[in-house]
């Protein structure tokens, strides 16, 4: 399998046509409405929980996860 590298969002999406807001992913060919959500399909987050398999794209979301799922940490 070809190794994926991190791309800017604008580099991996192209407009389907001028009348449509949807964009095509150049990595997999899927046509999507929300490019940011689809971007994370190929490039998942870098903030991983040390106690379970949860991975997030934002540090504050990881902090919320830890507080709700692992209250014994007292974060």
TrEMBL record:
Keyword Transit peptide annotated: no
Entry keywords, A to Z: Metal-binding, Zinc, Zinc-finger
Q: Does the keyword tRNA-binding apply?
A: no
Give any GO molecular function from the UniProt entry.
Answer: zinc ion binding
Under InterPro entries, the record lists: Znf_C2H2_sf, Znf_C2H2_type
- Where do the C2H2-type domain residues begin and end? 47-70
Tell me the protein's name.
C2H2-type domain-containing protein
Organism (species): Anopheles minimus
Q: What is the lineage of its organism?
A: Eukaryota, Metazoa, Ecdysozoa, Arthropoda, Hexapoda
């Amino acid at each position: 399998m070809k190794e994926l590298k991190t791309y800017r969002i604008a580099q991996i999406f192209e407009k389907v046509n001028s009348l449509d807001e949807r964009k095509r992913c150049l990595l997999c060919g899927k046509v999507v409405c929300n490019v940011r959500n689809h971007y994370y399909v190929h490039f998942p987050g870098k903030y991983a929980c040390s106690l379970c398999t949860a991975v997030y794209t934002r540090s504050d979301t990881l902090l919320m996860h830890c507080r709700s799922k692992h209250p014994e940490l007292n974060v």
